[in-house]
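Table S2 (text version). Query chain:
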Amino acid sequence: MKKKIEGVLTAIVTPFERDGALNTPELANQVNRQLDAGNGIFCGGTNGEFFVLNEKEKIAVTETCVTTVAGRANVVAHIGEISTRETIRLGKEIEKLGVDAVSVITPYFVPLKQDELIAHYSAIADALSVPVFLYNIPARTGNTLEPQTTRTLARHGNIIGIKDSAGSYASLSGFLEAVKDIDQFDVLNGPDSLIHQGFVEGCSACISGLANVAPRQINAIWTAFKAGDISASQQAQENVTRLRTDLYNVAFSPAAVKQALLLMGYPVGESRYAVQFSEQMNQQIRQIVTQSLM
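Corresponding structure-token output:
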């Protein structure tokens, strides 16, 4: 791996045109917004609506991000599919584009045992030359990577970390404890509410969906922490947590993030999945964003 993955990576949204087609010029614009705030890029994930993108679009999203970043920050691309075979196939296409690493969600819909997850991830890591992050988000997949399973996989030479989006401190701390003595294996925090705590306890980076809306506010948590100003980092986290709580109370978090961007004047388009926003919800989002980003 060329560069260590650290700091803030934004789980970048995937912009669409009014007719629903991919909008790569606006994606490049959003990537540059994040770079200006000091953030890296995580593309094709939950906030990027990977579950409604076809393979050609996933490749185009990644290519746009890599080209726009042009080596100025880290780019991690999500490649997880429901089968091992399809994940490897997509991964082989994505690794050609020059990403720093890839992330692989646990397979979804089909419940798997821990030894089956080990076999799945091992086969993927064996097949790819690009470094691999595990991606734990059980609320969306129905499959949970357990800390001991992660410890086993951490010994694979091409598996370099885990992104934990389970949403709880117990989950995050469990992974940190399980791999604390394994060098070159990093834990990336997913929930925006735990960014500061994650850094304090040893996370190398956070993957933030809310950074789409508040790139500088999210980055302030990391910047203060890295400078040794723990108090300022905690205060920045409290500001972000208030925004997160208010915004995510309105709608499913990726949908709320994208709608907030749209209402802020960025032409990112509507989500492809069946989510709807009433005028009352839009007014709530406008008010929340205005108050939080003043």
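Notes on Table S2: Strands lie at 7-11, 40-43, 75-78, 101-105, 132-136, 159-164, 186-189, 205-208. Residues 230-248 form the longest helix (19 residues).
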